[in-house]
From TrEMBL:
Membrane topology note: Multi-pass membrane protein
Any one biological process term the GO annotation gives: protein secretion by the type II secretion system
InterPro entries with a match to the protein in the record: GspF/PilC (IPR003004), T2SS_GspF/T4SS_PilC_CS (IPR001992), T2SS_GspF_dom (IPR018076), T2SS_GspF_sf (IPR042094)
Keywords, alphabetical: Cell inner membrane, Cell membrane, Membrane, Transmembrane, Transmembrane helix, Transport
Compartment(s): Cell inner membrane
Protein name: Type II secretion system F family protein
Family indicated by similarity: Belongs to the GSP F family.
Signal peptide: none
Boundaries of every Type II secretion system protein GspF domain copy: 87-210, 291-413
Amino acid sequence: MATVTAAKNARAQVASRAQVTQMPTYDWVALDKRGKRMKGSMQSKNATLVKAELRRQGMNPQNVKEQSKPLFGGSGKTVKPRDVAIFSRQIATMMASGVPMVQAFDIIADGQKNPRFKTMLINVKQSIEGGSSLHEALHLYPIQFDELYRNLVRAGESAGVLDTVLDTVATYKERMESIKSKIKKAMFYPLMVMAVAALVCVIMLLFVVPVFANTFKQAGAELPAPTLIVVSASQFMQSYWYIVLFGVVAVPFAIVFAKRRSTKFAHFLDRLMLKFPVLGNILRQSAIARFARTLGVTFHAGVPLVEALDSVAGATGSIVYSDAVKQMRDDVAVGHQLQLAMRQTGLFPNMVVQMTAIGEESGALDSMLFKVAEFYEEEVNNSVDTLSTLMEPLIMVVLGTVVGGMVVSLYLPIFKLAGAVAG
């Protein structure tokens, strides 16, 4: 109970510091002792304090003005996970070189091109200067520095190997971003095929088919069934194009909305995607790679296994695997071995279970998990390359079938008329 209270007090202190550190930024222009024109930016409560600080540094302030805020209330580009990965690598390198943490934050913040991330780093640094530990200061930004990240940092601080842990975290973040980019690449191809096919169909239905339909009407030709279907689709598209457009826009939004609102629907959608040929295999391999890499990193950092599994659940990128990891956590908490808990889920290949068992028996669980992660990360790379190779002829087949089918249906009456004339 005392531990929970202390944690709440720590979070409250960090939150209060967050309010204090959210100060405006001022751009300043000043002359140094040699009369050289200098410029920069500084966070402060007001312009008077900025001028006072510049005079204290031996400069003569010429112009101090608050940075203008964007029209729509933003403060720069969004902070991407890749930005956090680069930051982790930079601060790990500096701390390993003996640079004090606060100074490392100053150096990294000065080199940031993203104003939003720069402000974040300054606020975290000021929180550290106010007496917070790094993992407490990172509570200011729980979205960018998630629970897993903070737990790893806390473990590194407790063991006195923060620079080593940060280096491990940087490697972990880089690997996770690499896997995410591979997954996006794998999903991009089928979506692009569908988009191109749909665009070609729309263009033909709106602009090409009506021309042929008028010609057939003037000729009084009897249209075969395929042609009638295409002409009817064209007439529907011209009359109710707004319904089609609404459906195209609304359906994806409805799916995303339902996935966020309904756990059952999200679980169904996730299971459905895992059953897709090729793509489902990539998603499965990716989830296993993320699980193994994340658990290996957290366990290597000294986080207890049950607590590590709690953090890992949200890092798999799959609701199905996330639920499985939570079930594993509950099994391990009551005394079961990790490999037995993995086997009960039915989601992990026998090789993964066996390597986990060997790791548990030999006391080298983290090393075995890293080997599993490396194997499945390589499998993801190979599967994405395979998918890319398969998609090239598939694009030709899909586009040829769709466009060719429509063209043939339009020319069928012409062939029929030509045959009648020749007869």
